[in-house]
Amino acid sequence: MSSDMEIHKRTAARQAADMVKSGMVVGLGTGSTATYMIERLGERITEGLHIVGIPTSEDSARKAKKAGIPLTDFAAHRRLDIAIDGADEVQRGPLHLIKGLGGALLREKIVAQAAKKFVVIVDGSKPVDHLGERVPIPVEVISFGWECTAERLSACGAKGVKPRTDRDGNLFVSDNGNMILDCTFGPIEDPEELARQIDAIVGVVEHGMFLNMASEVLVATEQGVERWEP
């Protein structure tokens, strides 16, 4: 990715972080763009901002602690004022998302669903006309019987179902101790129906389609940052 695009991503992330007000409970996303947001919140805390955060991954928890962001959990706060995160694809119009290429989709969806406002930050390569155009749908599954789960995902129309591996070639394990199957569907005409089919498969914990969840999306382009609403 060009250095210019990284600059735009950072600008969008900082804009999102500047939406946060003192007293808020904030969902802290995962990924490269969310890292810029976490850094900005850390800066604002040194300037006097008072917030608490709920991270969407162990990685984001480490970065938040390093930035000086006090952390909390759902035992103390059932609802969040705002969650800020990235996405792997954004469908123009309804702003449906695919998330989870970083492996944190389950916690990301729990946090997004608990937030009164869910703000998404992406670069200009992420918008698409149909979900599945460029990236697979990550599906988090339990390891027991995952081969059977993969067959049922294929029966939903996936052209390929591949267990995710780490850099060493071992099966990827999520922060929740589960596997992730990357399912290539191609352009999806009816994401709501596909979501229902995947949700009905025994062994599936969660999938990476975030439908009707984004409150707004900040899109970092070469021309600047665009603000989209559903």
Helix fraction by DSSP (H/I, runs of at least 4): 25-40%
Strand portion, in percent? Answer: 15-25%
The radius of gyration computed from the alpha-carbon positions, rounded to a whole number of angstroms, is 17 Å
Major sheet description: 6 strands, mixed
Distance between the terminal alpha carbons, to the nearest Å? 27 Å
Structural class: alpha/beta
**Annotation field: number of helices:** 6
Shape: globular
SSE arrangement, N to C: HEHEHEEEHEEEHEEHEEEE
Q: How do the strands line up in the largest sheet?
A: 2-1-3-6-13-14
Instruction: Pick out the low-confidence regions.
Output: none
- Mean model confidence by pLDDT: 96
What's the β-strand tally? 14
Question: Care to give the gist of this entry?
Answer:
The chain is of the alpha/beta class and 230 residues long.
Structure description:
Belongs to the ribose 5-phosphate isomerase family. Pathway: Carbohydrate degradation; pentose phosphate pathway; D-ribose 5-phosphate from D-ribulose 5-phosphate (non-oxidative stage): step 1/1. Homodimer. The protein is of the alpha/beta class and about 230 residues long. The protein is built from six helices and 14 strands. The strands form three sheets. The protein has a six-stranded mixed beta sheet with strand order 2-1-3-6-13-14, sandwiched between helices. Strand 13 and strand 14 form a beta hairpin. Helix 2 (about 30-45) packs parallel to helix 3.
